[in-house]
From TrEMBL:
It holds the Pfam family BPD_transp_1. It comes from Microbacter margulisiae. GO terms for molecular function: phosphate transmembrane transporter activity. This is Phosphate transport system permease protein. The lineage of its organism: Bacteria, Pseudomonadati, Bacteroidota, Bacteroidia, Bacteroidales. Signal peptide: none annotated. Part of the binding-protein-dependent transport system for phosphate; probably responsible for the translocation of the substrate across the membrane.
């Protein structure tokens, strides 16, 4: 057997293991969530009630689905202009300069920081500031968690956007400059039309990353099992309620937490699929 065939088989086995792990994970989630869906049916998804009291148990995912969407959408809205500005600075305005290298290094550094560090920063720096300016009394809630989440997803959106913007052919930009276009006109009429699919996909993938974030959100959202009534209301996300209650859960309670995991798995998979579709469709 020659080296090419050995390499091919090794790569195939490695890739197949990933398929097995993904399939096994999905199977475990489905199997574990069946008791909950069998008991509550589809009302599990639309019910906002979450009561783990023995003898009066009732579980619904709506409060956590909305909490997850609220924090993730807020994070995306905050991260979008910051990541877009950073990508233009690094990939266009200060390309190959020392300043772009410093900014790019900081972005890469943020991507490697553990989420618990972001949570500590939010708890000891951002939360007291929010209390000080009078937005909330305790500083916990959707707003605080969303801001910290935005800081966490900026590197994902900015890094991919940098690469996409740098891939725009220089010939197109030079042709626009030769016709008298300004830098801003080149960005809007040449760079963005050619890079829009990649930039859009980067934000979709960052949104998918925000949906599943656990530790920092758990430390800052307030962990109240209610539907958030506003931007500064406390709440809970699917990932944070699983992290908070999984260790003490059993029976139907445990099955309901696994069902939340299955819903989060499906939503994240759909978000990632949408990002890949956009890349293929408009690339």
């Amino acid at each position: 057997m020659n080296s090419d065939k050995i390499t091919k088989y090794v790569l195939f086995v490695t890739s197949f293991i990933i398929l097995i792990v993904t399939g096994g994970m999905l199977y475990s989630l489905i199997q574990g969530s069946l008791p909950s869906f069998h008991t509550f049916g589809w009302k599990f998804i639309i019910s906002p009630e979450w009561n783990p009291t023995k003898g009066n148990e009732h579980y619904g995912a709506l409060a956590f689905i909305l909490g997850t969407i609220y924090t993730s959408v807020l994070a995306l809205l905050v991260a979008l202009p910051m990541a877009f500005s950073t990508s233009l600075i690094v990939a266009e305005y200060f390309r190959n300069s020392w300043f772009a290298n410093v900014v790019s290094t900081c972005v890469d550094l943020l991507a490697g920081i553990p989420s618990v560090i972001f949570g500590l920063w939010g708890f000891y720096a951002l939360r007291p500031f929010i209390v000080h300016i009078g937005l909330t009394q305790q500083g916990f809630g959707v707003f605080t968690a969303g801001i910290v989440l935005a800081m966490m997803i900026i590197p994902y959106a900015a890094s991919l956007s940098n690469s996409v913007i740098m891939m725009v052919p220089n010939e197109l930009k030079e042709a626009a400059y030769s016709l008298g276009a300004t830098r801003l006109e080149v960005i809007w009429n040449v760079i963005l039309p050619n890079a829009r699919s990649g930039i859009t996909a980067s934000y979709i993938l960052a949104f998918g990353r925000a949906l599943g974030e656990t530790m920092a959100v758990t430390m800052l959202i307030g962990n109240a099992n209610i539907v958030p009534k506003g931007l500064f209301s406390m709440g809970n996300t699917m990932a944070s309620v699983i992290a908070n209650e999984f260790g003490e859960a059993n029976g139907l309670h445990l099955s309901s937490l696994i069902a939340l995991g299955l819903i989060l798995f499906v939503i994240t998979a759909l978000i990632n699929a949408a990002g890949k579709y956009i890349i293929k469709k408009f690339a």
